[in-house]
Amino acid sequence: MLVKFNSSTSGQIMMLSPVARQLLEILQKDCTARGVITTEQLPEAIARLRRAVADGRASPAEAVAAQTTTPARSDDSNDDQKVDGPPIGLAPRAFPLIELLEWTRKEDGFVLWEAAKDF
Questions:
Q1: How far apart, in whole angstroms, are the C-alpha atoms of residue 119 and residue 116?
Q2: Helix runs in 1-119, H state only
């Protein structure tokens, strides 16, 4: 499921719900179908995300996913078990939202998120 983050001043970004959940949990926000990061909350939200990135913090779900291996498929092809690359960390996932929040803060705006349902 997609989650859209709309800035009142700076545009929109979209991300898949597991990534949005991870970032909203860092911000201590509920993962509801709709929510807001108010003008007053923007500085703290930016600081929380930056601290999490600096600490290399991952959600418990991400830590478990990084430890699991790709299950073998029935055709026993070696290509099916290859990993395309290293797992994507928190920094590249958080950067677009941090940028959106910073641009919105500069113009005293707010950020709304919207999804098809709670996630």
A1: 9
A2: 17-26, 42-55, 60-67, 90-106
What is the rounded CA–CA span in Å between residue 54 and residue 89?
A: 11
pTM equals 0.75
Tens digit of each residue's pLDDT (9 = 90 or more) over 23-63: 999 999 999 999 999 999 999 999 999 999 999 865 444 44
How many degrees, rounded to 5, is the angle at CA 104 between CA 100 and CA 108?
Answer: 165
Phi-psi region of 42 (alpha: psi -120 to 50; beta: other; left: phi over 0): alpha
Which residues is 65 bridged to in the sheet?
none
CB atoms within 10 A of CB 42: 19
Q: How many residues does the chain have?
A: 119
